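#onboarding

Welcome to the new folks! Below is a worked example of what a typical request in this channel looks like: someone posts a single protein sequence, and someone else replies with the predicted structure as tokens. Don't worry about understanding the tokens yet, we'll cover that in week two.

Example request:
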Amino acid sequence: MKIALLGDVHANLPALEIVLAHARLQNVSAIWNTGDFLGYGAYPNEVVEALQQAGAISILGNYDLKVLRFKGKDKKWQKSKRAEKYIAFQWAHQTLSRKNRRFLKSLPEQRQLDVGGKSALLTHASPESNEEPLAPATPDERLSELGRIAGTDIVVCGHSHQPFARTAGNILFINPGSVGRPDDGDPRTCYAILEAVQADVRVQHYRLEYDLDRAVSAIREYKLPEAFSQMILKGYDLDTVLQESS
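Example response:
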């Protein structure tokens, strides 16, 4: 049994299309999405619809939740958030269709699933918080604690945009990395495949080239901040891109 693990698409349709095509060639039987459909990219509706059409089992990410709650927070965030981040939330909220907004509102923040006789928790960040990043450098002690909270054999998470597979306290933690907005200086899209063969579980991460120019051209066509384009081209987060340009 093979399962494609992906997340943090952040409205980057060209990257998602490459990942879905590659996953189909690997004969995956399911797709699990750790959330953050939205943000910074130019294709919020198309990404939501593509993942639905692919039959992905999805949860909400923290960015998705912020976009859905934007209407009640906009005045506060306009004062408290960096201008580029505010624009990203505002544009995604205004662009998202009613149908896709309803779909996202229907999604849970976590799901418990089964794979090859093992239990798995699908969560955006950590089992305790959807804004706690889990990364290769997260201490084993913290992962073991979170594994006890999860109460499953496997934890599949996103949010940090840092791919890894680690075992702590007999719990396998997998982060597939970011499809649409890698933060490690490698602009290629990233996802993982989990393969369960009897009692054996294997994880393979993939970095794939995709049409960066198409993703960037769409951002510029909508006159979104140039920093959003540079994030895609350089493979860095917004803060890093803005620091480099200052």
